[in-house]
């Protein structure tokens, strides 16, 4: 009976060391999982930031395109007006009607 008594503390020490190792491994696995999830969160946030920046950039681009479209529609309406086309041809291209005389003044 005397030999069984000292063996129990050894067994407890072994169990205690095994528990410590197991707890260490569990903590290590948990830390790795936390690092992985943290990295995933960081990359998702940076990707979201890039997408939001792209959206803002595209909104500005769409606004410019809409303004250009308005100008082109106004220009189209003007070009449908015969008087405007005549004035444009006369001023820009030097178009003259039959019987008209053009004078060009030179500034000195």
TrEMBL record:
GO terms of biological process kind: cell division
Organism: Fructilactobacillus lindneri DSM 20690 = JCM 11027
Protein name per UniProt: Septum formation initiator
Alphabetical UniProt keywords: Coiled coil, Membrane, Transmembrane, Transmembrane helix
Oxidoreductase in keyword set: no
Coiled coil: 48-82
Residues annotated as transmembrane: 23-42
């Amino acid at each position: 009976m005397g030999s069984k008594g000292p063996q129990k503390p050894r067994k407890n020490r072994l169990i205690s060391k095994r528990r410590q190792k197991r707890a260490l491994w569990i903590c290590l696995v948990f830390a790795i999982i936390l690092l992985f999830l943290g990295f995933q969160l960081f990359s998702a946030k940076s990707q979201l930031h890039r997408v939001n920046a792209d959206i803002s950039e595209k909104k500005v681009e769409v606004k410019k395109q809409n303004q250009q479209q308005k100008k082109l529609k106004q220009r189209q309406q003007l070009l449908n007006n015969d008087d405007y086309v005549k004035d444009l041809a006369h001023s820009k291209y030097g178009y003259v009607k039959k019987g008209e005389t053009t004078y060009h003044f030179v500034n000195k």
